[in-house]
């Protein structure tokens, strides 16, 4: 692990003491604190009034019971979470994750990261995150609907377009947002479009929101490559995951001439050496809600197409020049990073949140690999959510082209501000430090203005 400045050690010790066993939250806080030594050396005023301690403590944490009835008439209980982390920049904003691994530590790490990510977009949104340990996999539409309705029946009282605006994340897409928006509308008797983002296009959703995180990560990674006069054209690329972020990363990378040869889900990874057939992936994942292993069955074995089961290999064993981890946290280990480096990886753009372990990040940085951390590289999703809020507030609807152009501009600005901040603080090319410092300052300044709250 890296070093935390002496002045900040006590803050980290207190975070560990107060959040026992929440390993992912500790990891996310540690990474930011490691970057902040350089800031407090230049600006000791940020140590005043427990400002950093307050940034590490969520403003509010809500945990609730979610009872729902399945198709066999059995009552199931899940746990719902919403962590309203920081509202210095605007209403809490961040996705809802439905996955069996969800617990308060995961939601807290995501909310903490989200605060800095949202600040980096330059848009007026605070940080929050939520979700449930509910597993939508294998559930009927009716079961998912009943779960979403029960979840919203508690959560709605904590939301509002000026208070807290959730969106999707793992396991939460347009279907789940639709059920939750319908229930919110029914409970409140208000058509408050700006209370949720990632909505369907027929009821206040934004064009390009679905594509935004994957496209945004591709813009960011391309901008990193361009600092070394490189581009995607002709490069072999591996994208992990096969959900919302992965699919639209593949789409944009292909449009720039990159050859994406592998993607995955929790059952394993599929390789197509001549380049993945994206229409087929979309058919399997978006239409049928199937598994990536079906790619092999539909494409036929041989001809450089194969599938490796989870546990029998790592997608990062597949040689590539650009890696875009887009599934989940800590999916890319120090060992994976060494394999990627040995195989000649030049750039890594994190589509997922915290997908690389600290050991992996250190290995990439030591090897001179351009590394774009999730809180900067995947900020295109939330940025476009904020554009959706803008359209809702002005009762307007932008074209795909206008929204995408805005997204591209925001991602360019995020890239440049991380790059410039890294230079200003004496670590040129270190996007991790650049993102942490630039995001921190944007949150810290309004907090100083507000006094101790
Ligand atoms: P989806 O649910 O659409 O897709 C997630 C993908 O990752 C699926 O292929 C899933 O496989 C795989 N995956 C999830 N958990 C695991 C796991 N524990 N082990 C192996 N594979 C796993 O989610 P998104 O694409 O929306 O999100 C992916 C990542 O991007 C997350 O880290 C999320 O926080 C981050 N992100 C998402 C944004 C968005 O706008 N959606 C914005 C910014 C970040 P399976 O189906 O088998 O579970």
Automatic annotation (TrEMBL):
Keywords, sorted A to Z: Oxidoreductase
Organism: Paracoccus fontiphilus
Record note on quaternary structure: Homohexamer.
InterPro entries linked to this entry: Aminoacid_DH-like_N_sf, Glu/Leu/Phe/Val/Trp_DH, Glu/Leu/Phe/Val/Trp_DH_C, Glu/Leu/Phe/Val/Trp_DH_dimer, Glu/Leu/Phe/Val_DH_AS, Glu_DH, Glu_Leu_Phe_Val_DH, NAD(P)-bd_dom_sf
Similarity section: Belongs to the Glu/Leu/Phe/Val dehydrogenases family.
Segments crossing the lipid bilayer: none
The Glutamate/phenylalanine/leucine/valine/L-tryptophan dehydrogenase C-terminal domain, residue ranges: 206-451
Protein name: Glutamate dehydrogenase
Pfam families listed in its UniProt record: ELFV_dehydrog, ELFV_dehydrog_N
MF terms (GO), sorted A to Z: glutamate dehydrogenase (NADP+) activity
Alphabetized Gene3D superfamilies for the sequence: Glutamate Dehydrogenase, chain A, domain 3, Leucine Dehydrogenase, chain A, domain 1, NAD(P)-binding Rossmann-like Domain
CDD domains: NAD_bind_2_Glu_DH
């Amino acid at each position: 692990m890296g070093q935390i400045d002496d002045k900040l050690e006590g803050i980290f010790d207190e975070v560990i003491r107060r959040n026992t066993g929440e390993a992912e939250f500790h990891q996310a806080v540690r990474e930011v604190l490691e970057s902040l030594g350089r800031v407090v050396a230049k600006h000791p005023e940020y140590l005043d009034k427990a400002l950093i301690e307050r940034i590490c403590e969520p403003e509010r944490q809500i945990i609730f019971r979610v009872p729902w009835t399945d198709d066999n008439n059995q009552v199931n209980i899940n746990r719902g979470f919403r962590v309203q982390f920081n509202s210095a920049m605007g209403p809490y904003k961040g996705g809802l994750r439905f996955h069996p691994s969800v617990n308060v530590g995961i939601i807290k790490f995501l909310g903490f990261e989200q605060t800095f990510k949202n600040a980096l977009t330059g848009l007026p949104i605070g940080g929050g995150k939520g979700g449930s340990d509910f597993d939508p996999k294998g559930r009927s539409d009716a079961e998912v609907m009943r779960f979403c309705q029960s979840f919203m029946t508690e959560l709605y009282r904590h939301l509002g377009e000026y208070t807290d605006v959730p969106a999707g994340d793992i396991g939460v897409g347009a279907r789940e947002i639709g059920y939750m928006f319908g229930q919110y509308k029914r409970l409140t008797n208000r058509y408050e479009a700006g209370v949720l983002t990632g909505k369907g296009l027929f009821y206040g959703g934004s064009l390009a929101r679905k594509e935004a995180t994957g496209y945004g990560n591709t813009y960011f990674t391309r901008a990193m490559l361009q600092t070394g006069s490189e581009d995607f054209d002709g490069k072999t690329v591996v994208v992990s995951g096969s959900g919302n972020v992965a699919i639209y990363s593949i789409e944009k990378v292909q449009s720039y001439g990159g050859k994406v040869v592998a993607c995955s889900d929790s059952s394993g990874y599929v390789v197509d050496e001549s380049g993945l057939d994206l229409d087929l992936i979309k058919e399997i994942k978006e239409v049928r809600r199937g598994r990536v292993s079906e790619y092999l069955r539909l494409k036929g074995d041989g001809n450089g197409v194969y599938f490796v089961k989870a546990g029998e290999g790592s997608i990062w064993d597949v040689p590539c020049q650009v890696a875009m981890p887009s599934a989940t946290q800590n999916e890319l280990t120090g060992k994976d990073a060494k394999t990627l480096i040995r195989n000649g990886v030049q750039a890594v753009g994190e589509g997922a949140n915290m997908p690389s372990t600290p050991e992996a990040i250190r290995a990439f940085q030591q090897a001179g690999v351009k590394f774009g951390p999730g809180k900067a590289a995947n900020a295109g999703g939330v940025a476009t959510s904020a554009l959706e809020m803008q359209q809702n507030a002005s009762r307007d609807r932008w074209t795909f082209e206008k929204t995408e152009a805005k997204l591209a501009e925001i991602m360019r600005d995020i890239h440049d501000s991380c790059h410039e901040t890294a230079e200003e603080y004496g670590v040129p090319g270190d996007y991790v430090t650049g993102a942490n410092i630039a995001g921190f300052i944007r949150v810290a300044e309004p907090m100083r203005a507000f006094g101790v709250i």
